[in-house]
Amino acid sequence: MGIGSVAKWVGMMKRILLTLLASSVVLAAGAGAGTAQAESYSGSDSGSCSDTVDGWGYFYAYTYQYAYISNNKIESESHSFSFSGFLEGAEEAELLNGKDRKWLIYRSGDFDLAVPYVEDAGLFARDNRDRDNDWVKLCDY
């Protein structure tokens, strides 16, 4: 193999390596662009209050709520509730879902409760027989 043939062969190898390198960069960029990142968030909040709500009457509420949400799924939660008045018995409420990255929604009898797991979201209730889906703010915490 002469010097001219070696130079030709080296030149061809450089072109092949550059082509392979360019292809791998394009493939890597394409793979990264199509990959969805998992979205997760968590928080905890607690508070208590008491008041009277027109049409429902007196209540007392204490809630502690922790939640870890990943890909819009409740992965972990922990809570402690104490209620009286028209919310009596809601300590055994059934967890339904999360809402707006602020609350976990529970159902107890005729009431749904939006229990906050972030600060300043507030505790809300609604009559689940009411088709208007009107939430009433019970507490500011």
Mean pLDDT: 85
In terms of quaternary structure, what is this? single chain
Q: Walk across the major sheet and give the strand order.
A: 4-5-6-7-8
* Secondary structure category: alpha+beta
The strand count comes to: 8
Percent in helix = 10-25%
Gyration radius, to the nearest Å? 29 Å
Distance between the termini: 84 Å
Number of helices: 1
Shape: elongated
Low-pLDDT residue intervals, each spanning 5 or more residues: 20-32
The topology string of helices and strands comes to HEEEEEEEE
How much of the residues is beta strand, in percent? Answer: over 45%
Main sheet properties: 5 strands, antiparallel
Task: Please summarize what this structure is.
With 141 residues, the protein is of the alpha+beta class.
What does this structure look like?
Helices cover 22% and strands 48% of the residues. With 141 residues, the protein is α+β, with helices and mostly antiparallel strands. A five-stranded antiparallel beta sheet has the order 4-5-6-7-8, with no helix packed on it. It has a three-stranded antiparallel beta sheet with strand order 1-2-3, with no helix packed on it. The protein is elongated, with a radius of gyration of 29 Å. The relative contact order is 0.14. Residues 20-32 have low confidence and may be disordered.
